[in-house]
Amino acid sequence: YACDCDDGYTANANKTACLDIDECSISNGGCQQICHNLPGSSRCGCKTGFEARPKGSKSCNDIDECARNGGRGPCAYNCINTQGSYECRCQSGFKLGNDGHSCVDINECQNKPCKQVCVNTNGGYYCDCNTGYYLAKDGTTCGDTIDYSECGVINNRIEGTQNWKDANKNKWPWVVHFATIMQSWFDYESENLGVLGVILSNKWVLTAGHSLEKDGFYRVYTNDDNSAEVAEIIQYSSCKPKKTECKNDIALVKLTNPITFAENVRPICIPDLAKQQSFLQNRSEPAMILTKLGGNGLQKRSVRVHRAKDCKRYSFSHHMICAGGLRGACAGDSGSPLVFSRKEYNKNYGDRRSYKHIAYLSGVLSWGNDILHETDLHDFDFEECDSDPQFLAYTNVAKKLQWIKDKTGITPRT
């Protein structure tokens, strides 16, 4: 007689018994990861974090543990899938809990990052100062005086106003006006030029390019009635409004002596391209224009951005901004700022609930309609502006960011 064995078995040496064949000993049984030897057969398996696909297959595929729960998987905030596993991560200001899945607040104040007072918040912290001290620009140290060099800080956002109204100059601390210095056997100062500018830093002012002679002698007055001599005028290009295309009607003015910043004298911010674009595309958002015409000191009026074709009767380019279109909104001083505001996270703090209002310079006034009194600014009559909607042309500051940086080192607020 002869003994025969079933599949998965082999006869012993004297052919009297059948022994199991260990399929896993040969090329791991054809399995990609784990081979389980069974009586008369074998079965493939996968490591933790992997599964056989299709079921019964010898190959293994990674399980995406993060796929469920909106991509968070078993994690409280963020899930990163890895080969055979996953990793939980937390947002800034938090760390993983002991369970490896939840997120708990980091108490940053334990490391004493603040000079005087540290207030921990959920996901952040902020520094504060004792009574009589003010937080410095670095957001951590305290001084007994306020740092007024931070650009654009205002108390409230810009809102719409009807018609021209008196403006509290302390609320527009970056506005300056120019006066001419007549050179003779003694120097004397002419009357106000009717030209405005805005403070970019303690050494630089921005205004319209056509309003100042490159070789002229000028003095700049700030809101606190202090003055600074003009050392240099850098015009982007020369032009005459309404006679030549003034798409680059902008000038940087370098001062001989630096401006001393105070509560009512401080710089304005220039926007990056993204902030400028969001403002220009939102034509319902009010912006503010300012003028010294009218005999009552500084005046303000809100306007809105319009399409370029609304200024089509003038020579107009994409380097300019068309604004106005409201009765009473007609041309003021050359160099008058077009200002918009944003409520922004206070970067001096770690607390994302701490905000402040920031003013941005969108444009400087180049020219307006024919109502502008070019020969005598002092007979300017605001009532004439009510006759029909008026449009004003502003040089787009965001189109000149690289030029401003190259000449002054000043960059947009981030």
UniProtKB/TrEMBL annotation:
InterPro entries membership: cEGF (IPR026823), EGF (IPR000742), EGF-like_Ca-bd_dom (IPR001881), EGF-type_Asp/Asn_hydroxyl_site (IPR000152), EGF_Ca-bd_CS (IPR018097), Growth_fac_rcpt_cys_sf (IPR009030), Nephronectin_domain (IPR052235), NOTCH1_EGF-like (IPR049883)
Query: What is its subcellular localisation?
Result: Secreted, Extracellular space, Extracellular matrix
Q: Does the keyword ATP-binding apply?
A: no
Q: From the UniProt record, which GO molecular function terms apply?
A: calcium ion binding; serine-type endopeptidase activity
Give the record's family classification: Belongs to the fibulin family.
UniProt-listed PANTHER family: PA14 DOMAIN-CONTAINING PROTEIN (PTHR24050), UROMODULIN-LIKE (PTHR24050:SF28)
Q: What is this protein called?
A: EGF-like domain
Q: Which organism is it from?
A: Paramuricea clavata
What is the taxonomic lineage of the source species?
A: Eukaryota, Metazoa, Cnidaria, Anthozoa, Octocorallia
